[in-house]
Design brief:
Layout: H1 3-21, E1 23-25, E2 30-32, H2 34-44, H3 47-62, H4 83-101, H5 106-132, H6 139-146, H7 151-172
Antiparallel strand pairs: 1-2
Helix pairs in contact: 1-2, 1-3, 2-4, 2-7, 3-4, 4-5, 5-6, 5-7
């Protein structure tokens, strides 16, 4: 890794941490600006750098640093209904970078990434709420808790990430 990679990696972790704190709860899943940060980083950074910084971010949170939403962290966060969304961000970043690196529509990539985030995040949320916490929620209730209220904001975040990346990309000079 170069000094530039380390610097941008640290800035990316900082952005993720700050974006995670810009949140409010809509049930068991907080609405944060974290998706926006993940999308921006995946659009701008080389895939290897995105994977490294996001891996470090997850590790920081799991060892107890308060980098997740509402200044939370620790290994117990694995049992949080929202942890599946954090895992899904990793695959979302790969999808976005794949589309970007092949000159394909990054707007389409952002929408596909959002679908993947919902699929993984909602599955994990249902497993925690129904399996671990024995809530007995049906599919419709899971959608109402972890998906439907978030769709408008997530579409706005995808569009903002797209626009922000168009503005910043020429300034960063990464070779993808």
């Amino acid at each position: 890794m170069t000094t530039k990679d380390l610097t941008y990696g640290a800035l990316g972790i900082g952005l993720l941490t700050i974006a995670s704190q810009l949140s409010f709860h809509l049930g068991p899943i907080p609405f944060t600006c974290q998706t926006l940060a993940v999308f921006i980083l995946a659009l701008l950074y080389p895939l290897r750098l995105f994977l490294c910084l996001y891996g470090v971010y997850l590790l920081m949170g799991l060892i107890g640093l308060p980098v997740f939403a509402n200044f939370s962290g620790g290994v117990g966060y694995l049992l949080s209904p929202s942890f599946g969304f954090l895992l899904a961000f990793l695959l979302a970043g790969v999808i976005i970078a794949y589309y970007r690196d092949r000159g394909k529509s990054t707007l389409l990539a952002l929408l596909l990434a959002q679908v993947i985030i919902y699929l993984i995040g909602l599955t994990y949320m249902a497993w925690i709420l129904n399996g671990h916490l024995a809530k007995g929620l049906n599919f419709k209730q899971i959608l109402q808790l972890g998906c439907l209220p978030f769709i408008p904001g997530d579409l706005v975040k995808a569009w903002l990430a797209y626009r922000i990346s168009q503005i910043l990309s020429p300034q960063l000079h990464f070779s993808h």
